[in-house]
Every structure is written in structure tokens, then in C-alpha cells.
Design goal:
The chain is α/β, with parallel strands linked by helices. It has one domain: TIM Barrel, CATH 3.20.20.190. The protein is built from ten helices and nine strands. It has an eight-stranded parallel beta barrel, surrounded by six helices. Helix 1 packs parallel to helix 3 and helix 9 packs across helix 10. The longest helix is centred in the middle third of the chain and has 13 residues. The radius of gyration is 17 Å and the shape is globular. The two termini are 14 Å apart.
């Protein structure tokens, strides 16, 4: 089972900061998870929320701000994360956030940057939006994220991405997916008991805020 750092080693450093991803390397993560949004001036940044309020106490919308406007929040560009991943040979699981005013421009810019970089690492592009998945499904490994059992069971994407609560309620999701040749990525797994549960049911990738603690729970050296 592989371990991806959820927004980096986000228990130890601010989520999706350069420091969080570099710490994830130190902690032995196999890959990085990241959320992507587009600024007003079409810069692709690593940021989860639609605004800066939770992280900074200042309520500024990402979509209506330029990258320079957001300097106080210190977001990193996706291109910087990509460089870190390539340099350290870490896989990427990239979630495009929706709905957003720019619509499919997020996926188009992501694909453009990936095509230019031609990274020799495993890339998965994730979304809760089926429309977003349709834009990338023939280019990179696609992951349908869901908290709904029937949606997970009927998904035809190469990877199914149930939340941890859904998987605990319906562990058969893994067996169903594997029978169809699909992988299963689960978020967000921090408690050692949940780590062991995911291992027992055969999850392929878990996303965790604390990669080092997950490695310890699994007995990895």
C-alpha cells in the first residue's frame, strides 16, 4: 500500500506549502496529494479552499484575485510542486476543484503544464466532478472522488476515491473495484487503526497528513 502526503505533511507544516511537501519527502511519502485552483490571472496554484479565510483569517477569493494579490497567503504555484515531485521522484494525485468561474480552464492548464514537463512519475488527476474527469480521462490516470456508495460502485474510472467514512461503512468497495481492474485511493487516513483497516481490505493508496506515522503503523522501515 502506498502513502501519499495529503496536502503535504500537513500536520507539521501549513498545508500545501513548500515546507509541507519537503517534509513529506523526509517522512518517506510515496507521493503528494494536492488541490488545484486558478487565479484571476490564470495562475495554477496549490490551494484547497475557494478563499483564504481559513488559512489566513483574511477573506479573499482565489478566483477573483491575481497571484500577486495572494502573496500574503503564500500559495505555491503548481509548477513548483511539480518540480519538487520530479526532483524527488514522488507520484502526484492532483484534485481539480469545482465549481469554479473558469470552468474547464483548470484542467486545460494542468494538462498543458504536464505535457510541457513530461514528468517521468505517476500522475493521477482527481475530482468530484464527472465533467472534470471527462476532460482528463484519456490523458492521465483519472480518479473519481466520492462519498456515495452507489457512485463508487458504478464508477468506470481507473481509480475510485472514496472517503474514509464511506470505505469503513462499505469495505466491499475495494473488492468491487479490484474485480473491475480499478485501484482504490482513500482519504484522509491518520489514525493507526484506520491505516491497518485500509491495509487489511486491500486499499492501493492512502492519503495522510502524517506520512511518518502511517509508515510506522504499517511497520515500514
Amino acid at each position: 500500500m502506498k502513502i501519499y502526503a495529503h496536502r503535504g505533511a500537513s500536520k507539521d507544516y501549513p498545508e500545501m506549502s513548500r515546507e509541507a511537501y519537503l517534509e513529506a519527502v523526509v517522512q518517506g511519502a510515496d507521493g503528494f496529494e494536492c488541490d488545484l485552483r486558478m487565479t484571476k490571472d490564470r495562475q495554477l496554484i496549490c490551494w484547497h479552499d475557494s478563499n483564504t479565510l481559513r488559512m489566513t483569517g483574511i477573506n479573499q477569493k482565489i478566483a477573483s484575485s491575481t497571484f500577486a494579490d495572494l502573496a500574503f497567503a503564500e500559495p505555491i504555484l503548481f509548477s513548483e510542486l511539480l518540480d519538487i515531485a520530479i526532483t524527488n521522484k514522488k507520484s502526484l494525485a492532483l484534485e481539480t476543484k469545482h465549481p469554479v468561474p473558469t470552468g474547464g480552464a483548470v484542467e486545460r492548464e494542468l494538462l498543458r503544464q504536464l505535457d510541457l514537463a513530461k514528468p517521468n512519475i505517476d500522475i493521477a488527476i482527481m475530482s468530484f466532478s464527472k465533467m472534470a474527469i471527462s476532460r482528463v480521462k484519456n490523458r492521465y490516470k483519472s480518479v473519481f472522488l466520492t462519498t456515495n456508495f452507489f457512485a463508487a460502485k458504478s464508477s468506470k474510472t481507473p481509480v475510485v476515491g472514496p472517503g474514509l467514512a464511506l470505505l469503513k461503512a462499505h469495505p466491499e468497495i475495494v473488492e468491487i473495484a479490484h474485480a473491475k481492474g480499478q485501484e482504490v485511493y482513500v482519504w484522509t487516513v491518520n489514525d493507526p487503526r484506520d491505516v491497518n483497516f485500509c491495509a487489511e481490505v486491500g486499499v492501493d493508496v492512502i492519503m495522510s497528513d502524517i506520512p511518518a506515522q502511517v509508515r510506522k503503523a504499517l511497520g515500514y522501515s
